What we know:
By secondary structure, chain A is mainly α. Helix content of chain A is 70%, strand content 2%. The longest helix of chain A has 31 residues, at 293-323. Chain B is mainly alpha-helical.
Amino acid sequence: MHPRPGRQLFIFDSHHVGVWILTGAILLFLAFAAPNFFNAGNLQSVLNDAAILGIGALAMTLLIMAGAFDLSVSSIMGLAPIAGLLLGGSYGPVVMLVSIFAGALLGLVNGLIVTRGNVAPFVATLGTLFVYGSIGAIATNGNAIFASSPFLFNLSSGVVLGIIPYSFFILIAVFLLCAGLLARLHIGRWIRAAGSNLRASHVNGIDLRYVYLALFTLTGALTGLAGIILSGYLASAIVTQAPNYNLSAISAVVVGGTSLRGGEGSLIGSVLASILFSMVNNGLILCGVDSYWQYLAIGVVLVIALTLGVAIEWIRQWVEVLGRPVKPPIASETG
Amino acid sequence: MVKKLLRSESLAALVALLAVVILFTAIDNRFVSLLNIEGVIVSASISAVVGLGMTFVVAMRSLDLSVGSAMGFAAIMTGTLLSAGLPLPVVVVAGVLSAAALGLANGLLIVLLRLPSFVATLASYSVIFGCNLLITHGATVTIRSSTLNDLVVGRVFGILPAAAFTAGLGFVVMFVVFHQTPFGRHVAAIGGEIRAAIGAGVNIPLVTISVFVISGALAGVSGIMTAGMLQNADSTVGQGAELMSIAVVVVGGTSLMGGRGNLPGTVLAAFLLASIKSGLNVSNVPSLYEGLIFGGILIVALMIDGARRGGRRKGMLVV
């Protein structure tokens, strides 16, 4: 497989065509099973949940493309807003900035442990998952702290056109930022290089330590942003407010068609998968199903998406083989 | 075997364990009271059993994120079947077999769909955890069998809790399998250099599936032990155990890069972490600090390991 230039832009790329099919199928199902789904208030809450997951999933997409992971995001989701609320006073925008900055700092620590301590990202961030969670619990004595700022509350409850919460625009901004990084800056090429072949990129003189340091810091900052949106929505911050955020974000990235083998990835796929997860959770509640079904449903979605991905890749290869002329005419390329 | 036991990676964990024991004894000598030591042994044995399976998985350069859910599943199966009045031996076998079947499903997902183990077991983690919640409806199943409790915490020959014998037996079997059989060498070969393994004619699908079945079965044993210790089962059994057991394996000196497995190290690391947890408890450190200390130890241990490898950057890809 040779990724052609411009292939990332093609929206029905085989890597994330699976998530399009699934999203369409679920929308169709919900239209019949739960017409309430399309209420303005409900759509707003679906998009807000999608934004909170999607921001982390986008950062995680870049990390996974570069061949790394961050398991500590679950704790940063709690600790960064706690830091923001404790240190940032009561003015909403300042709380938000402090929270993003705290997240960036925590991400930087992750990056330093990985690059300077020579520790594999998986276990390094597993360690900081425990450490950050513990620090957050110690800072608040394990309790929730109150987030009363109307600015923070508005992030998820203020709407445009009646259905789109401000948080979703933040998601779009983050998407554009990540897409810009990948497409327009050197670091985008370095990320792909790092993920697809470490040794080759090393030979080419790219100091991957800085790439990883930047990516972990970015992931921390974006997770801090997602955390403060969640805290604004809940009107409180507790360190355990998103306990499964790490695995959910990785699941969204995988369902979105990014390979865990690194090198290739799909940002739009991750956003779509976040919306898909949020729709599934919401749809289950609307259908009056026990909340116990949620874990099962997410797992099943993951399995279906992965199977679809494999099947589509299979079909694509067959079509390529079948569509190839038996004896390729030499002149046809130019003529 | 003594030489192997004292390989440098295990030695580090052993020294750390001794240091921790001496430290906590100095802080409060209730740490070495009989009751406390028994508690440490039981909880260490439970995490060692699941860690042994995980060591195989990690040696194969894979990960199994579903062991926590599989532990919960086996525990809930045990509780439910015992309440239904089935005899204990049948229940234990059924619990272990069901967890092994979950491992089989993992293996098939990985082999048939050619998925990275991380993704496949992430999916099954979610599905199994959902099943656990659905079966119990979030409630707790009480286990009234005192025999099962005796099989975990009861003293054998008046000295050691029975759990230690289960873990010891598991360790000996897994150690022999890993170091003395072709299967063990195949596991290490797949983890170390998969192309060489293919070239040598290793049946990769079969070995992969077997390793995940073993990991599932041992998670099942560990789940049943947890249920026996607690005398009840609910969906929180095994929660977080997947990441904890990976931490145990790594602190024990098995590299995530695969190719080698350090089973004695895993057992020592299980004892180390259980001692720290219990020691913090005895010396009245609030439980909020546990994560800080666990995570700190994990990071420091790995950074020492990283420094010892002399800054050789062998790549960071860990999937």
